[in-house]
Specification:
Number of strands: 2
Largest sheet: 2 strands, antiparallel
Helix content: 55-70%
CATH class of the largest domain: Mainly Alpha
Number of helices: 5
Order of helices and strands: HHHEEHH
Radius of gyration: 17 Å
Number of domains: 2
Strand order of the largest sheet: 1-2
Strand content: 5-15%
Length: 114
């Protein structure tokens, strides 16, 4: 994976870094279960600060693409498609909560769908 980020872009660097890693996963450079390089190594590859990379990695973890496990490092947990679906699920849960539904009620609705 070799990516240089565009410092003149209006997109924040951590989002560009997350997009670069997301692209690498989509292109098959890292598959489910594979470990990613250390944040400091990714930072050197991308030409950015390690903390910026860590912020990007947290975004990808929240999307369901990465998994952080003590002693195992950061591994690829899913695919971009799974991450996109997980984002939609989070939006659904957030919307259901705003409308007063409990998690159990939402699960029951989903289970009732043929």
């Amino acid at each position: 994976m070799e990516y240089r980020l565009d410092r003149s872009s209006p997109m924040p660097l951590h989002e560009q870094a997350a997009a670069a890693i997301r692209r690498a996963i989509a292109d098959g450079e890292a598959g489910p279960g594979e470990r990613l390089p250390l944040a400091k190594d990714l930072a050197a590859i991308m030409g950015i600060n390690k903390n910026t990379v860590i912020r990007a990695l947290h975004l990808l973890r929240d999307e369901g693409l990465l998994e952080f496990r003590r002693g195992h490092g950061i591994t690829v947990a899913g695919t971009p498609e799974k991450g996109a679906l997980l984002a939609q699920v989070r939006d659904l849960v957030r919307d259901a909560r705003r409308k007063g539904y409990k998690k159990s009620e939402l699960i029951a609705m989903i289970e009732a769908i043929p």
